Amino acid sequence: MDAEFSRPMAVGRIPAKGMETVVEASEDECRRLVKRLGIVGLRNLSCRYRLKPGRGGEVLAEGWLTAHVTQECVVSLEAFEDVLAESFTVRCIPAERFREEDEIDPFAVDEVPYERDSIDLGELATEELSLALDPYPHKPGSRIPPELMAPEETAPEETGRRQPFSALAELKKKQN
Question: How is 121-150 classified by DSSP, letter by letter?
């Protein structure tokens, strides 16, 4: 299967001092990414990279991603636009040297394998975009109507039910 947004960069073409480059998705590529990402719309996807080669074929990639996305609100089911601006850092490792760790260090730089002496900067941007998308997007100002809320989701004054830890709060008041 062809990648929806592919911009291969030969690792051997990255100078020792590093380089900067920008990749931008075309309208057609954005339409194909909409299907892959399960969103309503996507436009102006762009990612600026600073690439710095390391030892053993490693490449440190710093990226700055921007995109206009249209998503469906999980509350109102209305489409709404949002602008994403994310920065990220990944270390690209030759696939033959890449090892998945059993324990993940949340503070370590993410490592991504690449094959055939080429890093796909478009695919890397797509993966970072997918991580930046809100899995439960809310249109600004959207609220669940009170009549649709389950009884336990309404305020305690409305239900008359005691809330968890209310007995502890009363004990604390008596002790003071």
Answer: HHHHHHHHHHHHS-SS---TT----GGGS-
First to last CA, the chain: 68
Question: What beta strand segments (E) does the chain contain?
Answer: 8-10, 19-24, 41-53, 59-72, 79-94, 110-114, 118-120
Q: What are phi and psi of 50, to 5 degrees?
A: -115, 115
Work out the angle at residue 72's Cα, subtended by the Cα atoms of residues 67 and 78, and round it to the nearest 5 degrees: 120
pTM score, two decimals? 0.76
pLDDT (tens digit, 9 = 90+) per residue, 94-131? 988 877 775 677 777 888 888 889 999 999 999 999 99
Name beta bridge partners: 70.
41, 81
